[in-house]
Specification:
Blueprint lengths: L13 H18 L1 E5 H18 L4 H11 L2 H14 L8 E8 L6 E7 L4 H12 L8 H31 L1
Antiparallel strand pairs: 1-3, 2-3
Helix pairs in contact: 1-2, 1-4, 3-4
């Protein structure tokens, strides 16, 4: 029984699993998105998000801690320079998992995992949504008041037109 064991072992021994997650995290940091299975993506999300949080504070200690997980100098420098600068004010949720369907060979559920702040298409949609404002639904009383005032305006306009036509007739 696996009471309280929340780690998905992915059918691998501990060393193999850590090496695989390290390689996938390096690829994700360098390419900003990768295609993989849903199970691996969920495990990768748990692996890489604390590293991105650690990268927000650029100190020697945090660099060494992140390097002990990733084992790649290029990935560490990329993480601390570009990725940490973009996610500096984000409180969490640095990755997004988008399901893409099933793999042809073994029907495994596939997905694309990406860094949230690096997808330009999604950022355009977010900017469009941010410019719109939310308005309250108007109640029936305001509509009734506006129709009453409009009808008064129409009556006044008609009386003015009648007055002007009567003046034209007199002339």
């Amino acid at each position: 029984m696996r009471h309280g064991n929340k780690v998905n072992h992915l059918g691998r021994k501990t060393g193999h699993r850590r090496a695989m997650l390290s390689n996938m995290a390096c690829s994700l940091i360098e390419h900003k998105k990768i295609n993989t299975t849903v199970a691996k993506a969920k495990a990768l999300k748990l692996f890489v998000e604390p590293l991105i949080t650690k990268a927000k504070t650029d100190s020697t200690h945090s660099r060494r801690v992140v390097f002990s997980y990733l084992q790649s100098k290029e990935a560490v420098t990329e993480l601390f320079r570009e990725v940490a600068a973009k996610v500096a004010n984000r409180p969490g949720g640095y990755t997004r998992i988008l399901k893409t369907g099933n793999r042809i060979g073994d029907n495994a559920e596939m997905c694309m995992i990406e860094l949230v702040d690096f997808n330009e298409n999604m950022l355009k949609d977010v900017k469009k949504k941010a410019t719109t404002t939310r308005r309250k639904k108007s109640t029936g009383t305001k509509k009734a008041e506006s129709t009453v005032t409009e009808s008064k305006d129409v009556v006044e306009n008609k009386s003015e037109q009648a007055d002007s036509t009567q003046e034209d007739i007199k002339e």
